[in-house]
Write a structure and sequence with these properties.
This protein has about 450 residues and is an alpha/beta fold. Helices cover about 30% and strands about 20% of the residues.
Length: about 450
């Protein structure tokens, strides 16, 4: 990586010396030995691929590393619009000026070279953090690399721009596909060129439930055995049994229908909160599709809701709630909601903003409403990245590798996991992903 940085500095000189290390304090940070070792690597200069099974603290570790660093020099980009809005970042496509790759790689690169703002932000950046990298195809990564090389006037990998890629290829796969199927990024030449120092977090910090961990590791690898089958069967809940928590469905239609059905069953006043949007029409339309809150939030006292924001008023190890926390609506007014969390705490929420950023990091649209949605049910895709308090997983008609693993790994303990409608066909594992992690030397 030193060679990469030298090639950049010899090609051009920035008018302002970049700050590679920012003075900052990390207080009340508790890291596992595994995370401590990983943080040492992150604080080096190599390109990094940070991965690990669900619950190993990838996001917490990354936030610790980025604390105090400028978003100009350390921009965070996400593979999807929904993920970008939740992390307060930009999409990978907008940051690198990719659009939808109209006309293929070469035409996309030539269009990007005409964007002076894009060229400047890529030259100013020291390191780009890519969240949920597993959902980006190899072609998308390679096109972004070409653009970075042109912007930084260097033929070094990524033009000498440092890359920290974060994600788990055993979870949801790339959105784009080619004639042969999913175009996994790790199969493309760009992955080898990037010379990632792979960090595989192995210590699960979310749960100490060993039987639950054994289940997740079996589902992750597709190596089901009688003990895992028996565990799954014990977790099956019949349709007649009561369940209070969030149901995870593969299809959005099932989610919407179930949430509205449960809301209608509640007595009392129906409250309607229209989300207030600001920005240009086109950007607002994008935000409506990507934001984790609905255009109209319907609530009644007693409704189960999911909070879609982390508590920013406390340090990470003292947060009252996180993205995915569940609770009952206790009181409703135009100004605030009181929610009795499943954890036993009561929190008060006011309306908050969800923002859409363009490639330059400028906010181009905002959505203001209470940061909650009805949570009797959610889609598996929207639950990725969330930690749910109690979940009932519908493992029927799944079609994506990693979909069952994402659904089953949303809770902190097997005590909070219930299942409906599962079979061996529900567990889909991509052999290429399994081989990729085995080549890492530690297995999946």
């Amino acid at each position: 990586m030193q060679q990469m940085r030298s090639s950049v500095s010899s090609a051009a000189t920035k008018t302002e010396k970049p700050l590679h290390l920012y003075a900052h304090k990390r207080t009340n940070v508790k890291l596992s030995p595994c995370q401590e070792s990983a943080l040492h690597i992150l604080e080096g200069e190599s390109n990094v691929f940070l991965t690990g099974e669900a619950g190993t603290g990838k996001s917490y570790l990354l936030n610790t590393y980025l604390h105090g660093k400028s978003t100009k020099h350390y921009p965070i980009v996400a593979s999807t619009g929904a993920a970008a809005i939740l992390v307060g970042g930009r999409t990978f496509h907008s940051f690198f000026g990719l659009g939808i790759l109209e006309g293929g790689m070469e035409n996309t690169v030539q269009r990007a070279l005409k964007n002076k703002k894009l060229m400047h932000r890529l030259f100013d950046a020291d390191c780009v953090v890519i969240d949920e990298v597993s959902m980006l195809s190899g072609t998308v990564l390679a096109t972004a690399e070409r653009i970075a090389q042109e912007a930084r006037d260097s033929d070094a990998p990524w033009g000498g721009l440092r890359i920290i890629a974060v994600g788990d290829f055993a979870q949801l796969p790339p959105i784009e596909a080619n004639a042969e199927g999913k175009e996994w990024a790790f199969l493309h030449d760009v992955w080898e060129r990037s010379r990632f120092h792979s960090i595989l977090l192995t210590t699960v910090v979310r749960t100490q439930d060993q039987e639950y961990l054994d289940l997740l590791r079996a589902v992750r690898t597709g190596e089901m055995h009688p003990a895992v089958d028996a565990y799954m069967e014990r977790k099956v809940l019949s349709e007649s049994e009561d369940f209070e928590g969030t149901r995870l469905y593969p299809h959005r239609a099932s989610v919407d229908a179930f949430n509205l059905k449960k809301l209608r069953e509640l007595e009392g006043k129906l409250w309607e909160f229209e989300t207030l949007y600001t920005g240009t029409k086109s950007n607002v339309e994008i935000l409506k599709k990507k934001a984790p809150i609905p255009e109209t939030l319907l609530l009644k006292k007693g409704a189960i809701v999911m909070i879609r924001r982390n508590d920013i008023s406390h340090s990470e190890d003292q947060m009252l709630y996180v993205n995915g926390s569940l609770g009952y609506v206790r009181e409703i007014s135009q100004e605030e909601l009181k929610i009795d969390l499943f954890t036993g705490r009561t929190v008060t929420l006011t309306k908050q903003y969800f923002e859409l950023f363009n490639g330059d990091g400028k906010g181009v649209a905002q959505a203001e409403n209470f940061p909650v949605n009805l949570a009797w049910a959610s889609t598996i895709h929207k639950a990725q990245g969330a930690t749910l308090d109690r979940v009932l997983v519908h493992l029927e008609s799944l079609w994506e590798p990693g979909q069952a693993y994402v659904a089953l790994s949303r809770t902190r303990s097997g005590d909070d996991l219930y299942i409906q409608g599962w079979s061996a066909e529900s567990i889909i594992v991509e052999p290429l992903v399994k081989e990729f992690y085995e080549r890492m030397g530690r297995g999946v």
